[in-house]
């Protein structure tokens, strides 16, 4: 890489510290093997622990420093015991999504060999889909971190669900572009719009824009599903789907459900991408009850690191970053196939460090 890419690192709370160290160790190894210059990491303090010490959820210049980096890597944010006066948890990452326009929340869901299959149908071994969650609007437009709720004394609270044309067009274009890339890798190249357009005008608007953008991609297949029916189909036939695009809250819920199908949240990688910034994080919580005990499954963070490398390849034009990303992904898949990866999360005998070593050995 001609110039070293700068990564803002927010380890955050709980197991965020443990899994961040694991993910960056694997990223560093993949970069080294590909003969690339090492990444430059800049640590930023943020989260519930930092809030309890300082009264701030992120250090004073943290947002600006994160915005100037080539990518942001986040471990986990939040502690159930640390809350604002209104009862909501500390969540600076929601503000970062809003500030940097990280509208495309990419949540891959993939079954790995020898990892738990929660469904009895043997076709569950074929699960390989992506939930694309719009991450700046929808019902999360009124998340407490933004201060947009209408609070009427102690008798009523109104939260606004917001869908705008500008953001939704970008989201749907991202969905079809993602489907094109996946089809190049052997996937179907099918995009399903998940909404509740039969009930809400906002969702009918969301679907209307989906149809408009679909006309730009006539070579790709499209489909539709109401969110409640989609929840059913993620249990009944998840192997039938490729890219699912949806509103923020729907994506928040369905991505957890889908993660449960392929083992648990310890496998739930996440990329949050905008036009100029990208943030990468495991989608699980901070799990403070096991922090520092070498019990956390680091694979969601490690696979998020692979998503970051893939993003850097597009951002910097250095193809070796994409090769490094594929190297990490293959290491996880091959490690499972060989029985070398057995996380405690699945009842296995390997903690955070042992799983990380197994992936490093494969890289």
Give an overview of the whole structure:
The protein is an alpha/beta fold and about 375 residues long. It is built from eleven helices and twelve strands. Helix content is about 40%, strand content about 15%. The strands form two sheets. It has a ten-stranded mixed beta sheet with strand order 2-1-3-12-11-4-5-10-8-9, sandwiched between helices. Strands 6-7 form a two-stranded antiparallel ribbon. α6 (about 200-215) links the parallel β8 and β9. α9 (about 300-315) packs antiparallel against α10. The protein is globular. The mean pLDDT is about 95.
Question: What value does the average pLDDT take?
Answer: 95
Helix content: 40-55%
- Terminal CA distance reads 19 Å
Rg from C-alpha positions? 20 Å
**Sheet bearing the most strands, described?**
10 strands, mixed
- Strand order in the sheet with the most strands: 2-1-3-12-11-4-5-10-8-9
- N-to-C SSE series? EHEHHEHEEEEHEHEHEHEEHHH
Give the percentage of residues in beta strands.
Answer: 15-25%
Can you tell me the overall shape? globular
Kindly list the characteristics that best describe this protein:
single chain, 363 residues, 11 helices, globular
Provide a short characterization of the protein structure:
This protein has 363 residues and is α/β, with parallel strands linked by helices. Helices cover 40% and strands 16% of the residues.
